[in-house]
């Protein structure tokens, strides 16, 4: 079993070939479905061999393909100040990119 720990969207994710994950929105605009991405590996596990050396990981590429763009759950923000009548309600939905891991090449 080959898997890798990659840095994606400010977080670390455990990925293997064929797995799908949600990362923060990629790029400034909407990426087209089928666009290839390179993710930075932090750790590579190949059976019993564990590679965490930065020099050895420089030759490792983790390739992902954009599946689509989705929105996260709605969160509600409410600001309130006591005794003044100040109330402010705001909502937010974070945009995510769903990617599928296509290859882990070492």
Characterize the overall form. elongated
Gap between N and C termini: 14 Å
* Helix fraction by DSSP (H/I, runs of at least 4): under 10%
The share of residues in extended strands comes to: over 45%
Question: What are the main properties of this structure?
Answer:
two-stranded antiparallel sheet, 1 helix, about 110 residues
Secondary-structure map with pairings?
Blueprint (H helix, E strand, L loop, with lengths): L1 E7 L2 E5 L4 E5 L11 E11 L2 E3 L2 H4 L3 E11 L3 E7 L4 E7 L2 E11 L1
Antiparallel strand pairs: 1-2, 1-4, 3-9, 4-5, 4-6, 6-9, 7-8
InterPro entries: bL21-like (IPR028909), bL21-like_sf (IPR036164), Ribosomal_bL21 (IPR001787), Ribosomal_bL21_CS (IPR018258)
GO biological process, one term: translation
Function: This protein binds to 23S rRNA in the presence of protein L20.
Describe the structure.
- Belongs to the bacterial ribosomal protein bL21 family.
- Part of the 50S ribosomal subunit. Contacts protein L20.
- GO terms for molecular function: rRNA binding; structural constituent of ribosome.
- This protein binds to 23S rRNA in the presence of protein L20.
- This is Large ribosomal subunit protein bL21.
- β4 (36-46) and β5 (49-51) form a beta hairpin.
- The strands form two sheets. Strands 1, 2, 3, 4, 5, 6 and 9 form a seven-stranded antiparallel β-sheet that branches. The chain has a two-stranded antiparallel ribbon with strand order 7-8.
- It is mainly beta and 106 residues long.
- It has one helix at 54-57; strands at residues 2-8, 11-15, 20-24, 36-46, 49-51, 61-71, 75-81, 86-92, 95-105.
- It has one domain (2-105).
- It contains one helix and nine strands; from the N terminus they run βββββαββββ.
- It is elongated and about 65 Å long.
- The model has no long low-confidence stretch (mean pLDDT 92).
